[in-house]
Amino acid sequence: MTDRRIELAGNLNMVEERIASACAAAGRKREEVTLIVVTKTYPASDVRLLHELGVRHVAENRDQEAAPKAAACADLNLTWHFVGQLQTNKVRSVVSYADVVQSVDRVKLVTSLSAAAVRDGREIGCLIQIALDAEEGARGDRGGIAADGIEQLASAVDGAPGLRLDGLMTVAPLAGPYAGRQRAAFERLMEFASSMRVGHPAANMVSAGMSADLEDAVAAGATHVRVGTSVLGVRPRLG
Ligand SMILES: *Cc1c(COP(=O)(O)O)cnc(C)c1O
């Protein structure tokens, strides 16, 4: 094995142990939680190694970087998640490789994703991104909408050809009432997810938790955790 492969295998084992113990502590089955490895700033060669090591879900947050990386890994059976703020002029590109867009936060984006998905004959899974620190009717600094906007977006996705409403996503807020309270933030997200499922029963995916707080996310009930740093290492700059 190459040094990098050994390093990634060791890191993956540690993350796997963290997820497994968090599941055990929460009385959840390990299969209830899917690991998504966030590969932003790292090369396609790392994605390839991760695939060899059993990873099947990867995430990226910038189209300029993700598009060539996904193309270089097109032969691998990977599910690609897009988790970054998405401009409508990037939608056609993102739809060509992403299976799931986790950062849906405005109706204009839904319209644009739907048109691109139909054009490509693809079905794109959509998560609505919640910003727990956003004012009612507003959006968060790092994308996402305030919770009062969930239903409008959920209905828009439900009614949009080529799109599938999969659930909710959040990033633990750095400001506001939930700053530093990841567990409470993720529990709040779960409440929104339960309410949303009343009208949209198939939308059962809840994406929460990163390297620093995946245990809180698993304890709260997240179905997907998005881990970058703990698998790949500290990124050279904020990605
Ligand atoms: C970068 C990123 C992650 C991973 O963060 P780490 O702290 O490196 O694990 C998760 N979610 C989103 C939306 C990200 O942009």
From TrEMBL:
Keywords linked to the UniProt accession: Pyridoxal phosphate
Domain Alanine racemase N-terminal, first and last residues per copy: 19-236
InterPro entries noted in UniProt: Ala_racemase_N, PLP-binding_barrel, PyrdxlP_homeostasis
Residue numbers carrying N6-(pyridoxal phosphate)lysine: 40
Repressor found in the keyword field: no
Entry-linked PROSITE patterns: UPF0001
Entry's transmembrane regions: none
Top-level taxon of origin: Bacteria
Cytoplasm keyword on record: no
Annotated HAMAP family: PLP_homeostasis
Family statement drawn from the similarity comment of this UniProt entry: Belongs to the pyridoxal phosphate-binding protein YggS/PROSC family.
Protein function: Pyridoxal 5'-phosphate (PLP)-binding protein, which is involved in PLP homeostasis.
UniProt-recorded name of the protein: Pyridoxal phosphate homeostasis protein
Species whose genome carries this gene: Streptomyces albipurpureus
